[in-house]
Amino acid sequence: MMSNSRRKFIRQLSSTAALLGAGSLGAFAADPTKQYLLEPSRPVSANDKIRIAGIGMGIMGFGDVNTALKVPGVELVAVADLYDGHLEKARSVYGNHLFTTRDYREILERKDIDAVIIATPDHWHDTQSIAAMEKGKAVYCEKPMVQQIEEGHKVIAAQQRTKAVFQVGSQRVSSVALAEARKRYLAGDIGQLNLVEAKIDRHSALGAWQYSIPTDANPKNIDFDTFLKDTGKVPFDPVRFFRWRNYRAYGTGVPGDLFVHLITGLHFIVGSKGPSNIYSSGNLVQWKDGRDVPDVMVAIFDYPATKEHPAFQMTLRVNFADGGGGGEFTRLIGTEGVMEMGWNDFKVKQHKLPVAPGYGGWDTYNTFTRKEQEAFVKAYNAKYSEADRAQAKTTEAAYRAPAGYDDRYDHFVNFFEAMRNKKQVVEDATFGLRAAGPALAANESYFSKKVIHWDSERMKIK
Asked: How far apart are CA 155 and CA 22, in angstroms?
């Protein structure tokens, strides 16, 4: 029987699901596994033109801008970056009319810019997000929302104070696949959740953040001092600039870059506010290139029982030294099934136990005398009906978005719809800190070598 709290949560879900465009499901193949094709959201109409700017034009910056421009009615006005080569690249891609600058503050002063995409190194996210909101700009900020937990509270306060549209860029929460996964979870398809396990393993230099460094990198075409911000002063170093993810001073390591994706998706599916205890361990195994963060990390998160979900444990693993070639999975395991997540697809495998426990096999029944075995079987059959004694049932259903589907596009659609129609964003600053906070706490656990006790309601380390 469904609890009142679950009914309430499903009612709360309905408006968000409509925004995400989960749509109806249609079978697309005759197969022992039931398969369903998820319908993406309906086409977007360009009501009001929205003018955007990109702050930070690295890998994510170009990727985000390219995706945002696919949304009808969106126009790129300006970009900011500390490397002149990125600005030159932007002009060659988007046109020489583009305003370019090293100083992001010049962008915030422009009246012809409605929204900014912040895709800078993690240690700049809070400062630029707050400054943009205070200047009346809507903000799409890449994950993790912040580098330090206390910075997250300042971003939340700024969003509440300015009433600005602010969305974190963990795009999976806008995926039609995650919207349907949440429906399937709330419908009880896997029974009672008790364990979540996920891994992202890689075995490549680029996968381990050894990104290419341009041959022309020098102090004249890179504003390295500004990049450093308030971190310790060091001589010009293009490695730190282009591979900033490898350094605690500028990035957030494995947890902030990868764990946060997994945490965000989980929180969206089950409606969680976060864990209560966090412990992580790891090592620097293969990529000893000057980085000061591990390339192998395992973290355990204890989630307490709440009105939204039962108590469960989550284990996350990242291994950049996987000699098997890498691979990834995310599994939500329940008492009656398992949900295996892909990126824009997932499977639900159900294995429902019969009411009767069975006998024989590896069992004490075989140690009984013949007379006792006969008595046991008679009593067993009297207690359990034929239906109760039926074998465990195993079923499988697969759900996927259509070929070419892009969840990042839907995430930008949600962001711009919030601007145009005053809708609630999918991932606001509070949601962003509830995902980033446990990831950052995993870093704290690793470096302090202790269990971190997390207050998920107040979003603080206890």
From this structure: 30
